[in-house]
Write a structure and sequence with these properties.
Blueprint: H1 10-13, H2 17-43, H3 53-80, H4 83-87, H5 90-115, H6 120-144
Helix pairs in contact: 2-3, 2-6, 5-6
């Protein structure tokens, strides 16, 4: 039987490590979702209008990838602080499902809509779905702490 000693995890035994990791997690989540939202707003005809959505994807992509990298790394560290708690948390399960869906959507259909010139209805649906998806992920993240 594998026994995981929570007390041996630095996030559980150092006063500052968990809050600091959480700060990196939240800030990097804001970075990656914020850069995606810039593209979504452009697809909706708002935001930065002097660039196309495709140009904004190219400009924001390195920042999105950096944000995703940090959010996943810090998220794995946070998860390691009490894996059983997170595995049994409905908001955490929802968050993980939405994260997977969001990453898949962002790098497939959303990107295709941003780089091509689809009809206004398709642009609206692509952006609205993306914004709804990421907003739901953020709210599910908030509820993980209270479950």
């Amino acid at each position: 039987m594998l026994i995981y000693d929570l007390a041996a995890n630095p996030l559980n035994s150092n006063e500052w490590s968990f809050p600091l990791t959480e700060c990196f997690h939240v800030a990097s989540m804001a970075l990656c979702i914020g850069t995606i939202a810039v593209v979504d707003l452009r697809l909706l005809g708002a935001g930065i209008t002097n660039r196309t959505a495709g140009q904004l994807v190219r400009l924001t992509d390195p920042w999105s990838i950096a944000g995703f990298s940090i959010v996943i790394t810090s998220g794995l560290l946070i998860f390691s602080s009490d894996p059983l708690k997170y595995l049994h948390s409905a908001p955490f399960q929802l968050k993980m499902g939405l994260l997977l869906l969001g990453i898949l959507y962002n790098y497939t259909l959303h990107r295709k809509a941003a780089r091509s010139d689809p009809p206004p209805g398709i642009r609206f649906l692509a952006a609205a779905f993306s914004l709804a998806l990421w907003t739901t992920l953020v709210f599910s993240s908030i509820f993980v702490a209270f479950w």
